[in-house]
Task: structure prediction
Amino acid sequence: MFQFILIALLCATAPLATAKSHGKIIRKPIISRFNPTRRIVSSNNTTPIQVGNGNFAFGADITGLQTLQPFNTLSSWGWHNSSLPNNTTPANFTGLDWWTHGRLVNYDQPNPAEPGISQWLIANPHRVNLGRVGFVLLRGDGHGTEINVTEHDLSSVMQELDLYSGTVRSVFTIKGAQVQVTTIVDPETDTLAVKASSTLLSKGQLGFFLDYPYATDKNKFEAPYVGDWNAVNKHKTNLSLENTNGAHGAAKITHQMDETIYYTHLRWNEQSQIKLVTGTHRYILQPHPGNSEAFELTVTFSPSGSSPSNAGVGAIQSASAHWWKNYWETGAFVDLTATENATAIEIQRRTILSQYLLAVNEAGGDPPQESGLANNGWYGKFHMEMYLWHSVHWLAWDKSSLLERSLGVYNRFLESSIERAENQGYDGARWGKMSDPTGRSAPGEINSLLIWQQPHVFYFAETEYQHEDISQRKAILQKWDDILTQSADFMASFAFWNESTHVYDLGPPMYPASENTPPNSTTNPTFELAYWRFGLDTAITWKQRLNQSVPEAWINVAEHLAPLPTTKSPTGEETYTLYEGIPNMWTDPETVMDHPALTAIYGLLPAPSRAPDILNHTIFAATTAEVARAWNFTDCWGWDFPMLSMNSVRLGDVDAAIGYLVDPNFQFDDVGMPVGSEGKAPTPYFPGSGGLLQAVAMMAGGWGGQDKEFVSAFPEDWMAKVEGFRPVL
Ligand SMILES: *[C@@H]1O[C@H](CO)[C@@H](O)[C@H](O)[C@H]1NC(C)=O
Ligand SMILES: *[C@@H]1O[C@H](CO)[C@@H](O)[C@H](O)[C@H]1NC(C)=O
Ligand SMILES: *[C@@H]1O[C@H](CO)[C@@H](O)[C@H](O)[C@H]1NC(C)=O
Ligand SMILES: *[C@@H]1O[C@H](CO)[C@@H](O)[C@H](O)[C@H]1NC(C)=O
Ligand SMILES: *[C@@H]1O[C@H](CO)[C@@H](O)[C@H](O)[C@H]1NC(C)=O
Ligand SMILES: *[C@@H]1O[C@H](CO)[C@@H](O)[C@H](O)[C@H]1NC(C)=O
Ligand SMILES: *[C@@H]1O[C@H](CO)[C@@H](O)[C@H](O)[C@H]1NC(C)=O
Ligand SMILES: *[C@@H]1O[C@H](CO)[C@@H](O)[C@H](O)[C@H]1NC(C)=O
Ligand SMILES: *[C@@H]1O[C@H](CO)[C@@H](O)[C@H](O)[C@H]1NC(C)=O
Ligand SMILES: *[C@@H]1O[C@H](CO)[C@@H](O)[C@H](O)[C@H]1NC(C)=O
Ligand SMILES: *[C@@H]1O[C@H](CO)[C@@H](O)[C@H](O)[C@H]1NC(C)=O
Ligand SMILES: *[C@@H]1O[C@H](CO)[C@@H](O)[C@H](O)[C@H]1NC(C)=O
Result:
């Protein structure tokens, strides 16, 4: 009791912005219990075991490197443009004009008269697989020929990812000798550090290769492997030996693909030779016979040609151990292991592995792509509407510094978003959708007509505001003011005054979150209407907090938005609908599928949006029941299940909330990769992991606007222990 009061006092007085160690739960054994292990050679041909730092990640096969499988090495900064179609520049792209409430509005949609540049803009730039690093067998004669390792060469394989230190340990036997491998990534530089130990190394019979694929714009999805390994003549590499800086040897490989140039800096600790395999981009690092058994290698990928300052393998190992220990011991934590209830343990496993994988894949300088840094989906680009599901959980878990790394995207993209709105005759800033780091939104019918990314800025800003210490609030208000003002200006001018109904309509044309309705007749989708209202209400409150005048248009539109549309369910109850006037809402199989974003109006959206003058609770309860009854969950994937779960949590239905989190259509594989959806989103589909962490945070830490102290919403008999959570909105 005394300890509890002390913690409460500390929380009340210390600035709340920095993550703190809470230290009530002994976290390490819980984390380590879920260390992924793999024990067969081809454990999984779909997903690697990964190490990384949020901006850079390395996908390893069973050898701890990319020996057998060319899993990927991806970063936030590695991008490539294919050459433009002949006689064309991006300025040749003009998009399409669609009638929009009586006027022609230009949308960035592929223009059939401009097929070349339309497709080029969709597929460029694309994310680069920086290179492959693996083991090779050598003849051991000092200048030996290399021999590729195959599955059949390996036996007694054993691999474990130590989550607590971000280290992969792999052991295997090859040619009768054991090889032990440690694989780590530096938290600061984009450096892979490898420690390998074997008599084969001291005999010069085992070495390393580095290889480079060409980056191509041919495939929308490149999973599980990224890049074209057969286009040797389309790109160039060269090798130069470098100042060793205390290492035994060092080299730099320059890789040029068209306009893209980046560097690989290598350092090793034992006498070795490095050479190019003629006619390829494959480099072989051959340890000399007579070395010690322990070989250390660092491989730094960088857009910069100057030698990196990072230290050797030992120093990187301590830096990684330190970074990960801090990551695990600060911020929030949930312990569901008090009972051995299988569902509780599975949710714990998914949570721990998601915490790991999101720090590896989704804590970079840009919003994450759906597949993080594991493989390429949508050419490696990221989606502004998915940013919330990927990343908002960092705030509830008290890890705001990891979100801050990418949140600057709203400042960077503001100018081009203002231009987008202006070109279409709207005020303010219209946020794009499928983006590269320059902020260009890829041409696409859906891309140009989706709108639910627009209010996300209010969600992020309001969450930050609610979490901040009072003394920081002024800074938060100012930081977001311009972004929110521009966003709200667009939202007010986008809403269309309907002379006959005397309300403001959203659309047409538009696509709702489920992207499966006819855009020229989709009007007033329930989720988008509620989210628009939340955004405008927050914009108004923000100005009031800043003591600034509130633009009339915001108040006017917020107060006169179309009501949430309803229809009768097959059992005659009034329910909300996907959009206004949709035929056969609950009986058309093409409607009761895909993202059930209807449920987000309660589960995801904050208190004001749940107020009785916006949302009728009787109708909403009937809607939730009808979704549970009629929806085709086989067709749902990723964040759908956390969204449904959050809705059930808020409605107080714990069993349903837990059920959604372990729905058979919501799977995480042996290393915690969130399984995608056949034909829609390859594995990993990380919005599922981000959503899971947000749902768990909601169950553990509750939400704003509750009048009594929140008691965790996990089943009572699980005896869940939670600490350090911030309420979600
Ligand atoms: C490999 O991973 C995929 C997706 O991540 C999963 O569907 C499959 O079951 C896994 N296979 C094995 C053998 O673990
Ligand atoms: C690719 O080309 C576009 C359009 O010219 C440009 O904005 C972008 O910076 C280029 N990116 C890379 C990585 O070259
Ligand atoms: C583009 O121009 C080059 C050089 O004139 C030519 O070799 C190539 O076939 C052209 N490509 C296309 C797609 O027309
Ligand atoms: C692209 O625009 C330039 C300049 O207006 C023009 O000369 C060129 O023919 C256009 N290219 C195509 C493929 O239409
Ligand atoms: C929507 O209307 C525009 C004309 O404003 C038309 O060009 C387009 O093909 C229509 N789209 C669909 C999907 O019907
Ligand atoms: C080794 O594998 C690489 C990549 O698959 C291939 O290009 C190369 O020809 C192989 N080398 C040998 C000696 O088989
Ligand atoms: C290596 O390649 C880069 C890029 O193509 C080039 O600028 C550089 O001069 C080359 N260096 C050597 C030593 O060939
Ligand atoms: C595990 O917990 C859930 C939720 O409380 C419960 O429904 C289920 O029966 C439990 N399983 C076992 C084996 O006790
Ligand atoms: C006004 O709303 C009604 C009912 O939703 C709709 O049928 C009509 O098309 C709307 N008017 C305009 C001009 O969009
Ligand atoms: C707004 O005005 C109130 C009352 O004068 C003051 O306490 C508060 O600090 C002001 N807020 C800001 C952001 O300036
Ligand atoms: C909510 O909807 C129900 C069912 O249509 C209706 O009977 C009730 O009056 C509504 N409540 C409010 C507060 O509007
Ligand atoms: C449900 O969705 C799955 C996957 O898209 C589909 O194969 C199946 O036919 C759908 N079921 C119904 C009843 O429409």
